[in-house]
Design goal:
It is built from 31 helices and 26 strands. The strands form 5 sheets. The chain has an 8-stranded parallel barrel with strand order 1-2-3-4-5-6-7-8, surrounded by 5 helices. Helix 6 crosses helix 7 and helix 26 crosses helix 27. By secondary structure, the protein is α/β, with parallel strands linked by helices. The structure holds flavin-adenine dinucleotide. Flavin-adenine dinucleotide binds next to strand 4, strand 5, helix 10 and strand 7.
């Protein structure tokens, strides 16, 4: 950590007392010790030697070696992991042979020794073998990953060795089953005698039993035998978070620990019953679970070793298994990670979480205050409700969370495919030129009359907005289709946008009810003082094309919730989305005369609306330049000073120090810079990487960008769609052509096909992601609204032509000098550094150790300062206040005579 500013020795705390070098050395030693606890060896050669040594004292243990590393971001990563798996299989096979042949010379290609279950084996992660092991890239996975895994399987089959595919995140499950199916068919054709192929299955998944039935049916279909490992599951917290973030209807995993335990037992029962095609491998450290497995098997007349095996992780469950292995019939396979400390982190975090969790068996076993009765409590009891709120109820009583769609599930994809096939985009009338002139001569009240709407009790208005939110949620597929075709959104981005619009409606409904209650103020006796908010009048809402539904709906809903009338002017490029949104609001109960849609170009129609007499306020999202034009136009008007809420762009930076995790940085940077083809005002424009890690991060970033698919957004596999129109394309591609130095263009295959049955839409105006290096932040002086990522290398001390100097303070100063202040990303493993930097920089939204896009209504209120906007933040608790006027009401309660209140006291 030392190169970028943690040079210790001074200051308080441990660093101050011991000095940085001592602390760093001690930390490295601690990491090495932790690594030793959970990792068998650094190389496969050392690992197999260690395995042999352990077998000398404990003959009935076997090993499944796991080459550390997962989640390849680039093809180069995937190639390296493939080579290490291949080398490991050959090494394990040779070792087994050597054990048998006592060192005779052997042909590496003709390795063939112990029967499948008796010897050591290997565990592999499919996410390590392909940079896009995702459901949306199924065609690539089947065409590119399956042959690679098959190569490994063939080696394992020849060596009669167990090869198990690890279980990873739930959204990869169906894909892993497709891969398994393809592999089984190859096994049947080429190595029908091999029964060593296997899959890990997670009992914490609510569909675990269906999964086992499905895997057994695959095995029976192909007439092959499998070795299946039953685990409880290691990604529990991540699954809960994903379900909440994506607003899924339910959790894909159980939420009570003992429900997972029950599921494990039910799955055990099923696996033992499927012993015609499955050799079960029960992986657990829980003594209670092990005892139940033994009993269940015994009741079926099945023997340990012959009919099933037990498994544990290296470094865990040692004490429990010391006892279990006293029975010489029992065999235990140890899952043994192999690799260097650099690749340890993801694995180590999962193990530490597991060991640290209160509900975990190993944790409770180590806790002397937990008695045997508690430790071995039967899980056989049911809870009727989830142990915490479902994603829909995340915000408690205040509002319902918007519902998302999980496209990894085929049933959730189907309605969108159907909506795309039937979509007809309505022609939206525009205001003609001569009408623009007539607009100028009129007052805004000639377009909108909001009297009735504003007199409605706030709770009734809120109900109308909630009804609209529900209707929008129901019409999610149709709105997504519209966004895909009119605004070139990818399906995932379209869902996120509809959800944001739904959230705006519900949030502002709730907020209006909160803030529009009269507040009683203290004062002298005999007088009642209250403060209340009132609508200001008619607002002009001007929204952009990049979020044609969410920003449009957010502005309009804010105006309406507070009782104002609204004239909404959407971007010229996306009028159909706006029209559909307005129709939906009218149907939900917003009076037609309180909300009017006016379409046309900004320079004419937008300008005319802003210039009309009687406008109570303008809310605008778009470029800084246009915001300034509107501001000047308003200032030039006669009459009252008109408030303007402007949300504009930014030159958003992400700061990466040398302690940051490169994989995390690359994931965050790729999403932030290239999602929505970089057409978000929050998008990452300049990545500032400490020089010590820059080469590694930049290489990985280029590799990950090269894996993105550009093209037609009405296809599931597309990551980067078209720019909004030819003018935008010319601007961005013209800028890219002007770049001369260190430019990388990620030109992967162009997706030209559509979702099946859907007419092909345009693939014009596609700009592939571009990465380019600049030497200083000041070299980027304007926002490039497209998929172009700039990189700056930085260091402490003096800079040079290649590297920006001045350290973190210099970066903060440079960001502030640019004058924008919208979003900022920080990646570091040093908490104090992140918070200090966030304090130094004048930006609206700061994201630490994650991507910097996708602000959620009411969770990350969105909006910047300085050149990036006026505030208040959209989707935040202060937004609606700007739409209101304030009135105090003072009533002399003694006017009729005496002061009853005082006398009563
Ligand atoms: P227990 O303490 O009895 O169970 C802990 C488990 O319960 C947690 O891991 C979690 O899954 C679950 N849990 C915790 N809290 C809750 C809650 N509130 N509600 C519901 N469930 C909860 N995991 C994988 O995901 N993929 C693999 O490929 C994989 N391979 C493995 C291989 C081996 C040989 C072993 C031993 C484990 C493997 N694991 C794998 C890890 C495994 O999933 C478990 O995390 C670990 O074994 C702990 O389970 P346990 O039975 O030993 O302990």
């Amino acid at each position: 950590f030392l190169p970028d500013g943690t040079n210790g020795g001074s200051g308080g705390g441990l660093l101050g007392r011991l000095g940085a070098n001592t602390v760093v050395l001690a930390t490295m030693r601690a990491v090495a010790l932790l690594g030793k606890q959970f990792v068998l060896a650094e190389s496969i050669e050392a690992a197999t030697a260690e395995a042999s040594a352990q077998r000398r004292t404990q003959p009935n243990v076997r090993f499944s070696f796991d080459m550390l590393g997962e989640g390849a971001r680039t093809q180069a990563d995937a190639d390296a992991y493939f080579e290490s798996y291949k080398n490991a299989i050959i090494c394990i096979a040779l070792k087994s042979m050597n054990t048998v042949t006592k060192g005779q010379n052997v042909d590496k290609n003709d390795v063939h020794v112990p029967p499948d279950a008796a010897g050591d084996g290997i565990s592999i992660k499919l996410s390590a073998l392909h940079p896009r092991y995702e459901w949306s890239q199924r065609d690539r996975v089947m065409a590119e990953l399956v042959p690679r895994v098959w190569e490994l399987c063939e080696l394992a089959a020849k060596a009669r060795m167990n090869l198990t595919i690890d279980a990873e995140e739930v959204d990869r499950l169906e894909l892993s089953l497709d891969v398994l199916d393809a592999l089984c068919s190859k096994v049947a054709a080429s190595h029908p005698q091999w029964r060593g192929l296997g899959l890990a299955m997670q009992a914490y998944q609510t569909r675990a039993m269906d999964l086992i039935a499905h895997v057994a049916s695959i095995a029976r279909k192909h007439g092959v035998g499998l070795m299946c490992r039953l685990v409880k599951g290691a990604y529990w917290d991540a699954e809960i978070k994903r379900a909440q973030v994506e607003g899924l209807p339910h959790y894909p995993v159980f939420t009570h620990k003992h429900h997972t335990d029950i599921s494990y037992l039910a799955c055990t029962h099923m696996l033992l019953a499927a012993n015609d095609v499955i050799y079960p491998q029960f992986a657990t450290h829980n003594a209670s679970t092990i005892a139940a497995i033994a009993q269940l098997a015994h009741a079926k007349g099945l023997q340990p070793g012959a009919h099933y095996e037990l498994q544990r992780l290296h470094g865990m469950g040692t004490g429990v298994y010391r006892e279990v292995l006293r029975d010489p019939r029992v065999s235990c396979r140890i899952y043994a990670p192999v690799g260097s400390h650099r690749d340890l982190l993801a694995y180590l975090v999962r193990r530490l979480l597991e060991n640290g969790a209160n509900a975990s068996f190993v944790h409770q076993l180590a806790d002397e205050s937990v008695g045997v009765d508690t430790l071995l409590l039967s899980p056989l009891r049911m809870e009727s409700a989830s142990s915490f709120a479902l994603p829909r109820d995340l915000f408690g009583a205040s509002r319902v969370n918007s519902a998302g769609l999980d496209f990894a599930v085929a049933e959730m994809r189907a309605p969108l495919s159907e909506a795309l096939t039937t979509l007809a985009i309505a022609k939206v009338p525009r205001v003609a030129d001569f009408d623009v002139k007539s607009l100028l001569g009129r007052g805004i009240h000639s377009l909108v009359s909001y009297q009735k709407w504003s007199e409605m009790p706030v709770s009734q208005r809120a109900e109308v907005l909630r009804k609209a939110a529900d209707a929008l949620e129901t019409a999610m597929p149709e709105f997504c289709a519209l966004l895909i075709v009119e605004a070139f959104k990818t399906p995932g981005d379209a869902v996120a946008e509809v959800r944001e619009a739904v959230d705006f409606l519900r949030y502002y409904a709730a907020e209006s009810e909160r803030i529009m209650q009269p507040i009683a103020l203290p004062g002298p006796t005999g007088e009642a003082n209250t403060l209340r908010l009132k609508p200001r009048g008619v607002w002009v809402c001007i929204s952009p094309w990049n979020f044609p539904l969410a920003i449009f709906m957010g502005q309009v809903a804010a105006g309406l919730a507070t009782g104002n009338g609204v004239v909404a002017k959407p971007a010229e490029q996306t009028p159909a989305v706006a029209q559909a949104a307005v129709e939906l609001l009218h149907k939900a109960g917003v009076p037609r005369d309180a909300l009017k849609l006016v379409c046309g170009p900004g320079e004419t129609v937008g300008a005319a609306l802003v210039g009309m007499a009687g406008v109570a306020g303008v809310v605008f999202t778009g470029s800084t330049g246009v915001a300034k034009i509107i501001n000047r136009a308003l200032a030039a008007k006669d009459g009252p000073i008109v408030p303007l809420i402007a949300e504009t762009g930014g030159i958003n930076a992400m700061i990466v120090d040398s302690s940051a995790l490169p994989e995390q940085v690359v994931d965050a940077a790729v999403q932030s810079a290239f999602k929505s083809a970089g057409q978000r005002c929050s998008a990452l424009r300049v990545l500032c990487v400490h020089e010590a890690v820059a080469d590694r991060v930049i290489d990985m970033l280029k590799g990950a960008a090269a894996e993105l698919r550009v093209g037609q957004t009405s296809h599931w596999s597309t990551d980067v769609g078209a720019l909004i129109d030819a003018e935008a394309f010319e601007g961005v591609s013209g800028y890219v052509k002007g770049l001369t130095d260190k430019v990388f263009t990620a030109n992967r295959s162009l997706v030209t096909e559509s979702i099946e049955g859907v007419a092909i839409h345009s693939v014009a105006n596609i700009q592939a992601p571009v990465i380019t290096e600049i030497s200083h932040l000041r070299d980027l002086s304007r926002e490039i609204f497209g998929p172009v990522l700039h990189i700056v290398r930085w260091r402490d001390g003096e800079g040079d032509a290649q590297v920006m100097g001045g350290g973190l303070d210099g970066l903060a100063q440079a960001i502030n000098t640019q004058g924008y202040g919208l979003t900022l990303g920080i990646h570091t493993r040093i908490d104090s550094r992140a918070t200090r930097f966030a304090e130094q920089v004048h930006v609206g939204n700061v994201y630490i150790n994650r991507n910097m896009i996708g602000a959620v209504v009411g969770v990350q209120p969105f909006g910047g300062e300085a050149l990036s906007g006026t505030g208040p933040k959209a989707g935040g608790p202060h937004y609606l206040l700007r739409f209101c006027g304030e009135q105090t009401l003072t009533i002399n309660t003694t006017a009729a005579g005496g002061n009853v209140q005082l006398l009563a006291g």
